[in-house]
Amino acid sequence: MKEKTKDFFINIKGNSKTYLKTNILFMTFVLSSVINGCLLRFFTVKNYFDIKPIIADLAVVLVIGAFGYFIKPKHQFKYFCTWSIIFSVLCVINSMYYTNYLSFVSFSLLETSLQIADVSDAVVDNVMEIKDFVFLWQILAIFIVNARLKKRDYFTKVSKIEIGKKRALGTLVAAFIFFGIFISTLTSVDISRLTKQWNREYIVMKFGVYTYQFNDLFATVKSALNPLFGYDDNNKLFREYYENVETHKDNEYTNIFKGKNVIFIHAESIQQYVLDLSFNGVDVTPNLKKLASEGLYFSNFYAQESVGTSSDTEFTLNTSLMPASSGTVFVSYFDRDYLTMEKILKEQGYYTFSMHGNNCTFWNRQAAHKSFGYDNFYCYTKDYTIDETIGLGLADKSFFKQSVPIIKNINKEHSSWMGTLIMLTNHTPFTWIDDVSNYDVTYKTKKVNEETGEEEEVVYDYMEGTKLGSYFKSVHYADEALGELIENLDKEGLLDNTVFILYGDHDAKLKKSEFNHFYNFDPETGEQLDKDDPNYHTVDYFEYELNRKVPLIIWTKDSKDNELLNKEITKVMGMYDVLPTLGNMMGFSSRYALGNDIFSIDENTVVFPDGNWLTDKMYYSQSKGEGKILNLEDTISEDYITEHNKIADDKIAVSNAIIVYDLIKKNKEEVTKK
Ligand code: GP9
Ligand code: MN
Questions:
Q1: Among 341-345, 599-603, 621-625, which stretch is predicted with the lowest mean pLDDT?
Q2: How far apart are CA 425 and CA 474, in angstroms?
């Protein structure tokens, strides 16, 4: 028995020795590729020793390497050398791209001349660093190793013992074992981010650069192939839809803002209900409340975002279309020719710009904003000094402070302009605000101390440690930042001829349990109500969905004294209604708008990307097949539901047809041809 075990180990030792001695080129390729993968993460996302991306890199490289065994040993160098060049150049490009944009490169971006222009700008901007070229050692290494092996006639010797197919199979099995180990460690967030492919830093951190790049290639090819099928049907759908759509109607708001400058505030994660909240007599959003009370306040306004969250809202606001049904417009369909507010205003002589305190490539904004027609995108380190960071990037207060002089300059150089300021600090998980905000979300009351008989202050810190508590503090910070912005814009005279429009970009994505905790605080006892208590309130599906509304405020310096402009509009409205509504006020319209001018429509329908819809009478969930009647006196017929389901389905289908098949451009081309 002892002898057998000994033999077994001697055998393994012998086999391993032979394996190592006869696979030198393959191993050089595998090792150098994995080292470069780690090196890239060392220079970029910094998690170079994380085992997960190393395993993923190894698995990918083994699969690629395995196919090398199908080639005769004498010619394997060409194969391994080619892949070494591809991999090391990939690392060089990604490292360079990261130095400039703090993100990783995508085939979908390189595909367009637009992005090439971006990259070349970066090169001209002279932000190439020596470290970006370190990866090329891999090519050198494989050349040196090959030259040495050739010298000692290594390949002829290997040819005699190597059975290519067997080695290929063995290597593939090893690769799949590594894949298996890797997949077992993935969370649902990891998988969802890999499929969405927009959070590139995260994917490289978790999956390594090689998986990222292959996945990116796959996503790019997939979105490029999509439009090849079904064009005729979709074009028919598009034409029929717009044939029957009513065009713009004049009303009392027509041209009320014609020629005025516009500032959009993209208020990150701000929901409507916070405008009605205060803690210990201090409002959560005093500045927003003031704007709402002085301007047009749309208090039943809903974002219509899908997986593209912020970017979907930007898209819907600017085009009056719905987000893409699969993937996101900003990542996969940003290069289509949409009729955007920027393009329309540019035709009227406006200078259009956007501003953001986060990485310029986040949500692929740099490319998407250019494609939508913005003249300039002022972003992150390119245009701002990162002097105060909260959460994802530049703190809103600093972002606004630094934006005002830029706008002042724009105002000097251009007679009319439109700008979108994208806020950032109030972004989930909100907890990072706890260090910088002293907004008090406790409940303070007075109670008589039973022992002393004296009245004393009692503080119940029931929101402590909750995400919703941090959210309130964070919203309060955002509101303070907005107050400062308005003050500074006004000081510079930038509000005198300007329409100031603020919209919440989507809800804060907080769980129902957070609201259950908040609503069931008992101020009498300072404790949570018991679930069996008759006063216990459970937030149900419909209440939660309806509460996701966000504020929309259209304000001017003199709106408070204007009957038309100082009103609360309670009619339901969606993000896609902004373009038609504001368009009428500014004297433009888009014939492709899926939304309505809220001042011209009797009953509006807000369609959500999942097919759910909302009217003033009902919220209906198509997936559940259930609705909630909003006014109990109303009766809703089956026909009403069927009719609105169709409205929802049509809008989603037509929007998707435009997005995937670039139908606005294609139809424009056909008209020109005729
Ligand atoms: C990112 C910021 C937040 O730059 O706009 O995006 P979100 O996560 O809300 O889509
Ligand atoms: Mn957002």
A1: 621-625
A2: 8
Pairwise pLDDT comparison (182 vs 20), residue with the higher score: 182
Identify the nearest ligand to the CA of 311 by its number: 1
**381-405 per-position pLDDT tens digit:** 899 999 999 988 999 999 999 999 9
Q: How far is the C-alpha of 179 from the C-alpha of 409, rounded, in Å?
A: 54
Question: Is the CB of residue 60 less than 8 Å from the CB of residue 211?
Answer: yes
The pTM (predicted TM-score) of the whole model is: 0.77
List CB contacts of 579: < 8 A, sequence separation 6 or more: 317, 318, 319, 320, 341, 590, 593, 595
pLDDT at res. 188: 79
The β-bridge relationship of strands 550-555 and 296-302 is: antiparallel
Pocket test for ligand 1, best of 309, 359, 378, 425 (most atoms within 8 A of CB): 309
**Rounded to whole angstroms, how far apart are CA atoms 584 and 586?**
5
For 196-237, the DSSP string reads: H---HHHHHHHHHHHHHHHHHHHHHHHHHHGGGSSHHHHHHH
Query: Which of 101, 192, 268, 379 gets mutated to test ligand 1 (max ligand atoms within 8 A of its CB)?
Result: 268
424 ligand 1 Cβ < 6 A: yes
Separation of CA 19 and ligand 2 centre (Å): 53
